[in-house]
Design a protein that fits this description.
The chain has 344 residues and is α/β, with parallel strands linked by helices. It has one domain: Aldolase class I (TIM Barrel), CATH 3.20.20.70. 31% of the residues lie in helices and 18% in strands. The strands form two sheets. A nine-stranded mixed β-sheet has the order 1-2-3-4-5-6-7-8-9. It has a three-stranded antiparallel β-sheet with strand order 10-11-12, with no helix packed on it. β10 and β11 form a beta hairpin. α11 crosses α12. It contains twelve helices and twelve strands. Bound molecules: pyridoxal-5'-phosphate (PLP) and iron/sulfur cluster (SF4).
């Protein structure tokens, strides 16, 4: 067994484990984790400085997850857009491939809360074959996004097999992997994994940092190993109330990501997912955060702020009101609030 697998085995998954570190109300929390499993990797646990801090909030179960919040478990209608059990095909030219339901940490705000951690079996072979067959037969698909769960929790040989099968399909131009392990289990990014991944270029990785406290020397080293393997790294952040919903926090995060060679890609408005309502920050706040970035820091530190529209209508970027058409000119607003007239 590799070190990362041993460490994953030592993750906290029950209330005895949690109570060893933090006082907790077992009776109520046991209902939460019966419904939405808990897992906190030893490394991610070590980042917690005090109960209630931004790391703690992301991984420690909360009774509010069971509140009747009127939200749906699958507002993006991913299940309706599934041609086979582990694919989501929403946009014409790209598909999401759900390669596993396991993660190193079960984020309490996860948009796939309905699924993650719920089945111990990774890809059952018939679902896997059905997904590969669908992609083979659907020649408009040029971009395959491995997601889950966390695809990098698959053992190297499974992952390699999956990548090899995808690379055999001539119309699959690029492969992307969405993974949180650089943040939650950085030791998973082994030199051996990187040597394997680099044989499948063009391969892109989008990771998922949400807070400056997550940018540590270990996560930086993990990203370095990936970048040195020639893998362009992007980041998707979720806007989370009381975690990162502050312009200064978000600016610091975006800037720190650039120092570890990770390019901010998206900031996601929280999806309207059942059990996560207490994490929602207002859209107004998100716009304020975007205003705090544009012009005030490197353009490269500016991701798109997107809402994934309910009903599977896709991601829609939100921009601060910087453009306004008038009869014979365009009125622009600079990041400092200057109003500029510009010919049409
Ligand atoms: C986000 C998403 C994608 C990828 O979108 P990009 O904007 O290309 O990164 C593809 N399919 C689904 C279902 C998605 O949710
Ligand atoms: S790592 Fe991603 S898929 Fe897994 S629980 Fe966190 S947000 Fe959800």
């Amino acid at each position: 067994m590799e070190t990362w697998q041993k460490n994953l085995k030592a993750a906290i998954i029950d209330l005895d484990g949690l109570a060893f570190y933090f006082p907790c109300d077992r009776e109520s929390l046991s209902q939460v984790i019966d419904k939405y499993p808990m897992r906190i990797s030893p490394y991610y646990l070590s980042l917690i400085q005090a109960p209630g801090d931004p790391i703690w909030r992301q991984c420690v179960p909360d009774l509010r997850e069971l509140q009747e919040d009127g939200l749906l478990s699958d507002p993006l209608e991913e299940e309706n857009l599934s041609p086979t059990p582990c694919l989501i095909h929403r946009y014409p030219d790209r598909v999401v491939f759900l390669a596993t339901t396991s993660c190193a940490v079960y984020c309490r705000f996860c948009m796939r809360k309905r699924k993650v951690g719920c089945s111990s079996s990774d890809l059952e072979s018939e679902n896997f074959e059905a997904a590969i067959r669908y992609i083979e037969e659907t020649s408009i698909v040029r971009d395959v996004i491995l997601s889950g769960g966390d695809p990098l929790l698959l053992p190297d040989d499974h992952l390699e097999y999956l990548l090899r099968r995808l690379r055999k399909i001539p119309h699959v131009e690029i492969i992307r992997i969405g993974t949180r392990v650089p943040v939650t289990l950085p030791e998973r990014i082994t030199p051996k994994l990187c040597r394997m991944l680099k044989t499948f270029h063009p391969l892109y990785i989008n990771t998922h940092f949400n807070h400056p406290l997550e940018v540590t020397s270990k996560s930086a080293d993990a990203c370095s190993r990936l970048a040195d393997a020639g893998i362009p790294l992007g980041n998707q952040t979720v806007l989370l109330k009381d975690v990162n919903d502050h312009p200064e926090t978000m600016k610091e995060l975006m800037q720190k990501l650039l120092t570890i060679r990770v390019r901010p890609y998206y900031i996601h408005q929280m999806d309207l997912v059942k059990g996560t309502g207490h994490f929602r920050a207002e859209v107004k706040r998100g716009i304020e955060i975007m205003k705090g970035l544009r012009g005030h820091t490197s353009g490269m530190a500016n991701p798109y702020y997107v809402i994934d529209a309910p009903g599977g209508k896709g991601k829609i970027p939100l921009l601060p009101d910087s453009v306004c058409f008038q009869e014979d000119m365009l009125v622009l607003k600079s990041y400092q609030g200057d109003v500029i007239e510009y010919p049409l």
